[in-house]
Amino acid sequence: MTDLTKLTLAEARDKLRAGDVTSVELTETFLKAIDEADALNAFVHKTPEIALERAKAADARIAQGDAPDMCGLPIGIKDLFCTKGVASQAASGILEGFTPEYESTVSQKLEDSGAVMLGKLNMDEFAMGSSNETSVYGNAINPWRRGNDDAALTPGGSSGGSAAAVAADLCLAATGTDTGGSIRQPAAFTGITGIKPTYGRCSRWGVVAFASSLDQAGPMTKDVRDAAIMLEAICGHDEKDSTSVDLPVPNFEAMLTGDIRGKKIGIPKEYRMDGMPAEIEKLWSEGTEMLKAAGAEIVDISLPHTKYALPAYYVIAPAEASSNLARYDGVRYGHRATLAAGDGITEMYEKTRAEGFGHEVQRRVMVGTYVLSAGFYDAYYNRARRVRTLIKQDFENVFAQGIDAILTPATPSAAFGLGEMTDADPIQMYLNDVFTVTVNLAGLPGISVPTGVDSQGLPLGLQLIGRPWEEGDLLNTAYALEQAAGFVAKPGKWW
Amino acid sequence: MSIDESTAAKVAKLARIKVEEDALPALAQEFNAVLGFIEQLNEVDVDGVEPMVSVTPMRLKRRVDVVTDGDQQEKILSNAPDAREGFFAVPKVVE
Fold first, then answer.
1. Buried residues in A399-422 as b, exposed as e (16+ CB within 10 A)
2. In the predicted model, is pLDDT for residue B86 greater than 70?
3. Looking at CA atoms only, how far is residue B67 from chain A in angstroms?
4. Phi and psi dihedrals of A426, rounded to 5?
5. Kind of pairing, strands A74-78 and A173-178?
6. What are the chain B neighbours of A386 within 8 Å (beta carbons)?
């Protein structure tokens, strides 16, 4: 009998439609796999009752015919998405006990399409981190290990639980969010596919806000076809998010022909960083050769302001976070500190936020407060916004030259060990996003595709960056890369 | 620009996060590491460049100015740490 957990979304969809399996059978199989995988700490709130109820409804809908693609497919939801009646904490102590009275648009769309929610997934607190080590639930663990070494590795972050769960076959796919690389970096660290769509493609409504001008939701899946299927289900205009775009949603899966003949692929010289590991360099040039062999034209390009993307991001993202996180005041929801006699409302705010926010979140809120404070607003915040304009112009210039997509490494290294960065200064951790953060600043779609393994057997990914709103074309290029790379490695089950 | 302990204390106050006195030196040092990294932005010539307002050039949608939501007092208060008689309750604000 086939191991149902190993199926892709597309395979499971086809089996459901053919009547080879029921959604209830699929769901029960995954619920068991999840219960056996507590060592990975990927699922932090399990929702078996909701899952089985939705699976039964999905089976009825499939029996009637005309069920949407996602109908009956078991998935995980990142804890950043508000889910009605189910704990939604953004992995923060300050939202302990919070159960939303509403459903995020993205998770609502999945529910409407018949998808089965298995539970909520671990992440960095408020999506601030690149290793899932800032979570109030503790670390999520990468199912991959270095050869026979049993040291625990990070699944990346912030969508670390989503990445670990998909890589370990605990769900068919998961939602992620990406503010500076939080879908693409964990996807690369766990050998899965993750796409951040164009800013505005997916509604942000009901997604706990980190940096509103950068945040986008997206799918984390086993392959490119699945990314296309799930992306179509979650994107589209939403009047509850004024930045969501009113454009038709194409059938992305139908655009996967694998034919990229004549496409112009840009290779940006600024992404060749000093001290880049030889394995990453090799992965990148092999990927370039694969696209060339598939008939694409390779063009050397320049994105001159790349170097300034991370510093600009570390002004803009904390600034927006300090504003967004001002709402956690101990009054309306979540945690409130126990007050001493005589404490007033200011003490309540200060104690509540000191107890409820973890260290990294506190640091970013305070950095944001500083760069927005009187006297520094122009020097830091406005300057960073000007640099952001230049970064976006870099991309506009190469697209105007006819470039269809840009190929870069997804991360500067393979997954690192949990705790390895503890004593490093925060900048070392921030460098994880060096190849991904430009894409958020420019609002572009970007996808991470696994294309190889390093000498220790850990997965490595390449990133493709596309033109705004052309996710279909981007997915097709990613599909061609995936076909050529033929990445099939899976982590050995030790949990 | 280097941040000293009193600036760190001021920022913590503005952010409404209680930071104990003995944690201020380490906090100031962390701020300096991050700000040192950000300083690179000074190398960029931004003369005549507009600060980005919206990454996607689009006009915000308009709608008729009517009430579309409301009457959800119970739901809104359901997650409050302290709610009484239909209101959020907070420590005394006015003496």
1. beeebbbbbbbbbbbbbbebeebe
2. yes
3. 14
4. -55, -30
5. parallel
6. 44, 46, 49-52
- pLDDT-derived band of residue A422, with 50, 70 and 90 as boundaries? confident
Residue A38 burial by Cβ neighbours in a 10 Å radius (0-12, 13-18, 19+): exposed
Q: Band of the pLDDT at B63, cuts 50, 70, 90?
A: confident
Within 8 A of B94 by CB-CB distance, chain A residues are none
Residues within 8 A of A (CB atoms), B 17-56 only: 17-19, 27, 30-31, 33-35, 37-44, 46, 49-56
Of A15, A23, A78, A159, which residue is the catalytic one? A78
User: In the block, which residue shows the tokens 């589209």?
Assistant: A236
pLDDT above 60: residue A36 = yes
Confidence label for A1 from pLDDT (cuts 50, 70 and 90):
low
Q: What is the pLDDT of residue A124?
A: 98
Spell out where A74-215 has E strands.
74-78, 116-121, 173-178, 193-196
The answer to whether the CB atoms of B90 and A348 lie below 8 A apart is yes
Residue A158: cis peptide before it, omega within 30 degrees of 0:
yes
Q: What are the beta bridge partners of residue A450?
A: A461
Does A158 participate in catalysis according to the annotation?
yes
H or E element, residue A125: none
Q: What share of chain A is helix, strand, coil (3-state, %, to 5)?
A: 40, 15, 45
CA A230 to chain centre: 13
- Count the residues in chain A: 495
Q: Are A177 and A183 in contact (CB under 8 A)?
A: yes
B92 touching chain A per CB within 8 A: yes
Prediction ipTM score? 0.95
The residues, any chain, with a CB within 8 Å of residue A457's CB and separated by 6 or more, are A144, A146, A147, A489
* Span A73-114, pLDDT tens digits: 999 999 999 999 999 999 999 999 999 999 999 999 999 999
Q: Give one DSSP letter per residue of A269-333, joined into a string.
A: GGGS-TT--HHHHHHHHHHHHHHHHTTPEEEEE--TTGGGHHHHHHHHHHHHHHHHGGG-SSSSS
Whether the Cβ atoms of residue A148 and residue A141 lie closer than 8 Å to each other: no
**Alpha helices (runs of H) in A46-122, residue ranges in sequence order:** 48-63, 105-112
A182 is catalytic: yes
Burial of A394 (0-12, 13-18, 19+ CB in 10 A): buried
* A158 against A431, higher pLDDT: A158
A43 Cβ partners below 8 Å, 6+ apart? A34, A37, A76, A118, A119, A120, A121, A122, A161, A165, A170
| HEC assignment per residue over chain B | CCCCHHHHHHHHHHCCCCCCHHHHHHHHHHHHHHHHHHHHHHHCCCCCCCCCCCCCCCCCCCCCCCCCCCCCHHHHHCCCCCEECCEECCCCCCC
Residues in chain B: 95
Answer whether B70 touches A (CB < 8 Å).
no
Alpha-carbon gap, residue A36 to B73, rounded angstroms: 41
